[in-house]
């Protein structure tokens, strides 16, 4: 059995909007019709009372002047004494003592008598003084003929009008939603038939549909950029992996075919070196793939001065001289130990590869950021290459690349590790003329 929610979600947007609008309109109109039907009776009584008040004022003035009042059409005018007995020569009035008391107090009175049909009467009265000084009760009344039928028929007509109004609202909503969604249908067909690199046409009206088309085009642009980066990354990765694999294969074939133990040992050393290079390349690719997939562990406080000294201690024997300069005794960054270690290891290995004799690692702190600055005295990086050195597999083909061995992923991993923590990495010129790399993180306030 399908649940109401699933049934509702399976309906079209046009159907849901129309049904909601119809339900609200029908409930509102029916509610108004019921309220108007209930107010119809008091409205009729108030209208009768207004006519009776006008007739009563005229009759009272006439009696005060000592004349006999005339009765307007449809209204009965009677002159009574204060006990309710007629003094105008007419028949007795069907009013009891309580009705007479209410009329003398100025209150309206409703009565009814049963003959061939039941007739309801509405009375108003006022006590006036005749010229001879006697007190007279002037009473005016009229039959409420057809009031019940008017209330019943009026309520029915109001409900019928509410129903017709709801039907008209349903039709108008259906046509309005259909007209409003027609551009969406055209947009959907256009999106279905879009060629590679195509974009949706923007509607002329600056409305929500134009914003939707613009955002969709931006999404297409991002998707194409990601796809292009993936294709380029895949091609570059395949190219980078081909070299160490081919080298390992060739050197293994040499070792197998050559019986000389010394040559075989030398070849195995070369194979080990290429295998380590291949392993580092695969580790870098795996780290970047995890980052692209959005795998970001929670940040934690990391002390950069200690991490920088530990990274220097991990450098291989024979590396250029490295000095750690810390302006503050401790600098805490919001990252992870693995990320900071990756950044420092790659920056120091890069500096060691190109430095002539000296590397300086500085740790700086401000109110909201902490920075690690790595300066070397090598050939530096030309200005035209500084924006691209953090691209994957990008290598500078100038004097700085005179030493081989890099995979083109180290600086890319540094930039990615800093970016996903809200930091950034830049490259410039060091005071010694070499390269200066700066990495910043958000500072952790302890």
TrEMBL record:
Coiled coil: none
Gene3D superfamilies: 1.10.287.130, 6.10.340.10, Histidine kinase-like ATPase, C-terminal domain (3.30.565.10)
Catalyses which reaction(s): ATP + protein L-histidine = ADP + protein N-phospho-L-histidine
Membrane-spanning ranges: 157-177
Taxonomy, superkingdom: Bacteria
Domain HAMP: 178-228
Subcellular localization(s) per the UniProt record: Cell membrane
Occurrences of domain Histidine kinase (ranges): 236-445
Keyword Membrane set for record: yes
InterPro entries associated with the record: HAMP_dom, HATPase_C_sf, HATPase_dom, His_kinase_dom, HisK_dim/P_dom, HisK_dim/P_sf, Sig_transdc_His_kin-like_C, TCS_sensor_his_kinase
Record key words, sorted: Kinase, Membrane, Phosphoprotein, Transferase, Transmembrane, Transmembrane helix, Two-component regulatory system
An MF annotation (GO) of this entry: kinase activity
Main location: membrane
Keyword Zinc: no
EC numbers: 2.7.13.3
Pfam families found in the cross-reference section: HATPase_c, HisKA
PANTHER family named among the record's database cross-references: SENSOR HISTIDINE KINASE TRCS, SENSOR HISTIDINE KINASE YKOH
Name of the protein in question: histidine kinase
């Amino acid at each position: 059995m399908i649940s109401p929610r699933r049934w509702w979600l399976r309906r079209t947007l046009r159907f849901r909007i129309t049904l909601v609008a119809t339900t609200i309109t029908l409930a509102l109109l029916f509610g108004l019709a019921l309220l108007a039907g209930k107010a119809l009776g008091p409205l009729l009584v108030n209208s009768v009372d207004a006519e009776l008040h006008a007739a009563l004022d005229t009759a009272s003035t006439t009696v005060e002047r000592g004349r006999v009042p005339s009765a307007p059409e449809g209204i009965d005018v009677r002159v009574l004494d204060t006990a309710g007995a007629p003094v105008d020569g007419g028949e007795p009035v069907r009013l009891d003592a309580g009705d007479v008391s209410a009329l003398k107090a100025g209150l309206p009175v409703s009565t009814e008598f049963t003959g061939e049909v039941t007739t309801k009467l509405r009375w108003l009265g006022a006590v006036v003084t005749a010229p001879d000084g006697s007190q007279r009760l002037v009473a005016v009344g009229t039959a409420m003929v057809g009031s019940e039928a008017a209330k019943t028929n009026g309520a029915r007509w109001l409900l019928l009008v509410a129903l017709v109004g709801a039907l008209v609202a349903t039709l108008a909503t259906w046509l309005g939603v259909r007209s409003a969604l027609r551009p969406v249908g055209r947009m959907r067909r256009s999106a279905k038939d879009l060629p590679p690199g195509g974009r949706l046409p923007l509607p002329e009206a600056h409305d929500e549909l134009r914003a939707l088309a613009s955002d969709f085009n931006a999404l297409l642009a991002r998707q194409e950029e990601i796809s292009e980066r993936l294709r380029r990354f895949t091609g570059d990765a395949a190219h980078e992996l081909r070299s160490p694999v081919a080298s390992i294969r060739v050197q293994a074939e040499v070792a197998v075919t050559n019986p000389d133990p010394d040559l075989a040992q030398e070849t195995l050393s070369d194979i080990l070196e290429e295998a380590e290079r291949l392993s580092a390349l695969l580790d870098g690719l795996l780290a970047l793939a995890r980052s692209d997939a959005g795998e970001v562990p929670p940040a934690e406080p990391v002390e950069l001065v200690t991490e920088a000294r530990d990274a220097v201690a991990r450098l291989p024997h024979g590396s250029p001289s490295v000095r750690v300069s810390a302006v503050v005794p401790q600098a805490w960054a919001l990252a992870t130990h693995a990320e900071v270690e990756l950044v420092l290891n790659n920056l120091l290995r890069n500096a060691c590869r190109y430095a002539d004799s000296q590397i300086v690692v500085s740790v700086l702190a401000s109110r909201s950021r902490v920075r690690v600055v790595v300066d070397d005295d090598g050939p530096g990086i030309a200005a035209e290459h500084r924006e691209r050195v953090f691209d994957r597999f990008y290598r500078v083909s100038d004097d700085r690349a005179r030493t081989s061995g890099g995979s083109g992923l180290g600086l890319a991993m540094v930039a990615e590790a800093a970016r996903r923590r809200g930091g950034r990495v830049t490259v410039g010129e060091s005071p010694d003329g070499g390269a200066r790399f700066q990495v910043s993180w958000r500072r952790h306030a302890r």
